[in-house]
Amino acid sequence: MRLATTRMPALFGLLVLAGCQAKEAEAPPPVRPVLTTAVEVRTAEIFGPFAGTVEPRYQTQGGFRVPGRMVARDVYVGDLVPKGARLAALDPTVLQFAVTRARADVTDAEAQLANAGAVEARQRTLFEGGNVTQAALDAAVASRDTAAARLAQGKAALQKATDELGYATLKADVDGVVTAWNAEIGQVVSAGQAVVTLARPDIREAVVDIPDGLMAGIKAGTEFTVTLQAAPTITAKGRVREIGPLADPATRTRRVRMTLVDPPEAFRLGTTITVALERATPPRITLPATALLQAENRTSVWVVAPDGKTVSRRDVTIHPRDGTAAGDESAVTLSGGLKAGETVVVAGVHSLAEGQAVRLVASGF
Question: What does the pLDDT look like over 274-297, one tens digit per residue?
Fold first, then answer.
């Protein structure tokens, strides 16, 4: 009896230990919190945006056709001027003297012509009466023709002097806006020197510099969406009109000019804009690189079950890296294996197992 009593505690301890082990074996695996993101399928990509400015398609640098000292400036940068409006003027004193002299020369030539004509008429009358020789008549006719030529020369000189006097006033050739001034009152300017820059605001363009490596698919006629940087809700269409034939050696960019199609008034000259182009692409899915699990010669991701409680491993196809994605190591583009709306684990993928119980913490990416 004493032996049986001694064995009872030991037997009881063995039974308790076996029960604990059974409970541990039956305990469910721990629920692991995971970061996830929803799958979005992209069927288009945005080319850009690129920053630029609004510039006029047509602008001219105006200058005086004659040299002189500038004595008047009627407009300033930013002023709208109608066609024919005076922009600036030179001192006309010397040019007025030239006109006076030319007029005097014309008057003298007219008198000489009148005198030569009278002489020629008298010589012809005398010649018909046989009182002078043919040579005398011919000399009178030559003198009259010379006087007529000198009168024509004088009139041309007068017209030239009058025109040059008019050139002392610089006028706008078209309706436009003043964008630059290169001379001031009192400055002596030469003929043809740029004094003012006048731009036509009726035809405006978006001018941007695009990296040369991205120009393969851009051609004349391609339409971009142009947005004001100061007011992103205001947009317009920009149609490519001109592409720079050579890339800038320093920045390796090409200058592209786009004609704005019916732009709002907010697209004023000099306004800063951005341009972008939406292009259709095969369906693609972008995920963080941390979502990929590469093991057992498989590339896969963990997809959360519709009830959000477990995960399962699914193989995916990686899209070849292109020029726009080069250099971005934080994301990966997939071309197959997932559907829009599915939920994918984006962190801790190497610590999960098939059917692992999970708890969604937050959305990443």
Answer: 988 776 667 777 888 887 888 778
| pTM > 0.90: yes or no | no
Q: What is the CATH number of the domain that holds 151?
A: 1.10.287
- Count the domains in the chain: 4
Task: Say yes or no: 247 and 174 in one domain.
Answer: no
CB-count exposure of residue 365 (10 Å: 0-12, 13-18, 19+): middle
E strand or H helix at 277? strand 272-288
pLDDT, tens only, 130-158: 888 888 888 989 999 999 999 999 999 99
Query: Could you tell me which of 246, 226, 245, 228 has the C-alpha nearest to residue 236?
Result: 226
The domain in which residue 138 lies consists of 93-167
The label of the residue with tokens 């009259």 reads 144
β pairing state of 32-38 and 358-363: parallel
Q: Which residues of 308-328 are buried (b: 16+ CB within 10 A; e: fewer)?
A: eebbebeebeebeeeeeeeee
Q: With residue 309 as reference, give the H or E element that holds it.
A: none
With respect to residue 11, please indicate whether it lies within any of the assigned structural domains: no
> Which CATH number characterizes residue 287's domain?
2.40.420.20
Q: How far apart are CA 358 and CA 345, in angstroms?
A: 10
- Cis peptide leading into 49, omega within 30 of 0? yes
Q: What one-character-per-residue DSSP string does 138-150 give? A: HHHHHHHHHHHHH
Q: What are phi and psi of 81, to 5 degrees?
A: -125, 140
178 and 82 within one domain: yes
- Joined tokens for residue 338: 């997932």
For residue 228, what are the β-bridge partners?
A: 273
- Tell whether the torsion through CA atoms of 108, 110, 114 and 117 is positive or negative: positive
CATH of the domain at 261: 2.40.30.170
How large is the angle between the packed helices 134-167 and 93-128, nearest 10 degrees? 160
DSSP string, 98-134: HHHHHHHHHHHHHHHHHHHHHHHHHHHHHHHTTSS-H
**Token pair 């990686």: residue:** 318
The helix/strand/coil state of 167 is helix
Pairwise CA distance, residues 64 & 167, whole Å? 6
